[in-house]
Structure formats: C-alpha cells, structure tokens
Design goal:
It is a single chain. The N and C termini lie close together (9 Å). By secondary structure, the protein is an all-alpha fold. Helix content is 64%, strand content 0%. The chain is globular and about 35 Å long.
C-alpha cells in the first residue's frame, strides 16, 4: 500500500455511504469491521467530513488525489494545517 490517508478515507466513506447505503445495518457492520490501517485512515477522514462540493473542487484542481499537496488539502477541504498533515500521511506499506 502506498496511498494517502485522504485517498483511503475518501474511498471507504464513499463505499460505505454510497454502495452500502441501501442496507444501513450492513454499512454499520462494515464500519465496525474495518481493520488497521484502514480504520485509522477512515477515522482521520471522518474528523474532517469534507463536503461533496469541496471534494469536487479539489479533484478539479488535482484530478489524482494521490498527487495533492498538504496546502491543497488546507485550501480546498478547509482543513487546519494539522489535519492536512494527518490526511497527507501515507498508509504503511505492510500491515
């Protein structure tokens, strides 16, 4: 794995809230069953809770989420420097 917390958190949030939105019980179970390091990435992303509009703005500026900078996270997702730094972290290469 070589992805940012932002990218993984966004993917998990989208999966749980979009794909599994039909079955709330299943979605809740998916959240509960997240393993390390994905649970950590999801928890950091959950702290920010960016709007769909802010994510679209970020993606318009930088279509490849893996290539965004900490500064772009601050600007487009309205994150504090500390939160941007957390979201910019990369998942460990091994579990």
């Amino acid at each position: 794995m070589d992805t940012m917390f932002l990218e993984e958190g966004m993917a998990i949030e989208f999966s749980i809230n979009t794909v599994f939105a039909i079955d709330k019980k299943y979605a809740k179970g998916c959240r509960a069953d997240l393993a390390y390091p994905w649970i950590e990435a999801h928890n950091v992303y959950q702290k920010l809770r960016p709007s769909a509009a802010s994510i679209r703005s970020l993606r318009k500026e930088s279509p490849f989420i893996d290539k965004v900078s900490e500064k772009q996270i601050e600007i487009y997702l309205n994150a504090s420097p500390e939160m941007a730094s957390e979201l910019y972290r990369r998942l460990p290469k091994t579990r």
